[in-house]
Amino acid sequence: MSLYEELLGGYKTSFRPGINYMYLERPLILSVSFALKTIKTFDELNSKFSIVGNFRFGWYDERLIWNPKQYNGITFMSFKEKDVWIPPIGYLICYDNVDLLGDSDHIISFSYNGKFTWVPPQILDSVCNAYIM
User: Fold this and answer.
1) Residue 72, burial from CB neighbour count under 10 angstroms (0-12, 13-18, 19+)
2) Count of domains in the chain?
């Protein structure tokens, strides 16, 4: 059986990470950071502000742990977002539509110890009430 099949066989994307995920006994620790790349637009008349940047999320999923010695020293894997659990995080002060971050075809990587790193690139369009004197 391949590592891919071993990891995702029976894996449910609808259940949050954790060994006792059905009982939610332990909180999920999610680290978050944001890196601003550039200001794309500032439209005072339409109260629109656009930035380009990316969030970086990190967490552990104990369901996706393996021993690299059993798989030719493989220490990292990559899957599409739709194949694994990702936190459902929305951007609420958007200009047009409220959407969840991410893209189901975007690649997410994780290590043999279950550590996920998710960096969904985003252009964030916000409502911005400008008061310029």
Assistant:
1) exposed
2) 1
